[in-house]
Amino acid sequence: MTVSNKVRSVLFVPASRPERFSKALSCGADVVVIDLEDAVAPAEKAAAREALKQYLEINIEAAVIVRINAASTEHFTYDLELCRQLPGVKAIMLAKAQSAEILQVAAETGKPIWPLVETALGVTELPKMARVKGVERFCLGALDLGVDIGIKPDTIGAQVVLDRVRCDLLLQSNVAGLAPPIETVFPSIDNEVAIEQFAQRASEMGFAGMLCIHPRQLSPVHQGFSPDEAEIDWARRVLVAAESAEAAFQVDGKMVDAPVIRRACEILKQANDTTVIR
């Protein structure tokens, strides 16, 4: 088993709850993150590392990402060494990433690095961190970031500030040639409409997927990051028309050129529709 190429849903499961690992890996999430950081009490960190080690040594087909503790903690070095040893760890998510030098240290494990940006310093260091060899994609940790910079949650002002950070993540990732970033968690578990709307907005902005805290979030997240039937139909018609066009042409009264054709191809790729992909 390998980590999915799709990353619409990135599901956290506490490293201190090994009885949940297999369930998380089989519940339909695109990516599973075993969490050694916030979900594990300080006194349980060592036991959680051992539980993860035992699970991956027994379940050799399992493929996970591991969120490790921040570099400022005593657990950082132990977490890194564990990840280095385990083939089932396919990438490392570094909590409170805010230093290119620390990312270089993490990348020495040979694992792809997913920096979790959740501090003001992390935002300002994005250009440097994005250029560290081994960094694969950024993730946004908006809850911790909001506390760090003192914004009021669930307000218009907070959204303005966080959207500025989202733009920075998207632009710096693009310039550095990284994979598109991952959106922050949505705190509600049962409000499927709100979850889907949040995911759809992130998709429209250019995020690849979002962090999830419960399996019940997966279905609306997948729906939010999937093109709808109208988009799929439009993309098919664009590519069909492109087969006989020699230059720019129109579909639905709008000009179609090379960038629009690439967008149509991407929509059909997301929909797993290969009927007319060039």
Automatic annotation (TrEMBL):
Signal peptide: none annotated. It comes from the Bacteria. The lineage of its organism: Bacteria, Pseudomonadati, Pseudomonadota, Gammaproteobacteria, Oceanospirillales. GO terms for molecular function: lyase activity. InterPro entries: Aldolase/citrate-lyase_domain, Citrate_lyase_beta/mcl1/mcl2, Pyrv/PenolPyrv_kinase-like_dom, Pyrv_kinase-like_dom_sf. Its cofactor is Mg(2+). This is CoA ester lyase. The keyword Repeat does not apply. Keywords: Lyase, Magnesium, Metal-binding. The keyword Ligase does not apply. It comes from Marinobacterium zhoushanense. Residues 8-215 form the HpcH/HpaI aldolase/citrate lyase domain. It holds the Pfam family HpcH_HpaI.
